[in-house]
Amino acid sequence: MRPILLRGIVACCLALSAATHPSFAQTADAAASFPNKPIRLVVPFAAGGTSDVLARAVGVKLGEVLGQSVVVDNRPGANGNIGSDAVAKAPPDGYTLLLAVDGTMVINPALYPKLSFDPERDFIALTRVALVPLVFVATPSLKANSVKELIELSKQPNSQLDFSSAGVGSAGHLAGELFKVQTGARMTHVPYKGGGQAITDVVAGQVPLIVTAFATAGPFIKNGKLKALGVTSAQRFAGSPSVPTVAEAGVSGFDVSSWYGIMAPANTPDAVVNKLHAALSKVLQAPEMKTRLEDLGALPVLDTRAQFAQLIHADLTRWARIVKEAKVSLD
What we know:
The chain is of the alpha/beta class. It has twelve helices and ten strands. Strands 1, 2, 3, 4, 7, 8, 9 and 10 form an eight-stranded mixed sheet that branches. A two-stranded parallel sheet has the order 5-6.
């Protein structure tokens, strides 16, 4: 028998053996029947913050499309690392997903030298779900009504201007530090363990200023409990077009927005990943979801898996540079 023909027969036999192997068959059956039980969507921050609000909005609609409930599971701690690590170590079957946040996925690697997970190795990037501009918001009593006045106020003798964020290394924290580098503003960061409590204390007057997402600050801006000074994105936010950008205030090139996405543990079967991505596509392209996210201060985003993975790779480099320039550390 010719060697080429023999190799072909052997290859066919091996393929047939693999296809009839119990574990292969079980995996295929599991993928075909996915999902047949509730899905857990882990939010690595406390309830009440932007990530939690977005997860619940997307989770409800995702559950409707998939025909199974999507249960939001808040796992706060270590600036999102605890919840993210739990998903990295979860069974790769599609029943445990992560509401991924740029702060944890692409900023924390520059801050934690011994991170317990690798954003590119340990996860499958499905898609971003929202892009959220950040905004400088202050208590009504703060003697600054614009970004320019904020800079001037911070430089006054004996000025002790604090600003809060969702935590050390969060997008709000880094936006504030970058603002200090580019303007010379003197401000002291007050970190919290989540955006919910951070903004609650600003509303209560415990801290005069916060850099946070429109999704978190929007309701307080609308009811007059907080005032918006400037948005951090390159363009004004369509949901609040009267709020100028930081760049418009003279801080040239200032552009920081936060993204939120859905990720699964590495090695989740392609069939399951494809079903999840298809379902998320339906959710994010629905007109009612677009309206819902915009009402929350977010812009809906739908990526291919490759696009999201490429963004994460690029952002890891970008934020490592910003962390170094701003001299941010956990000490």
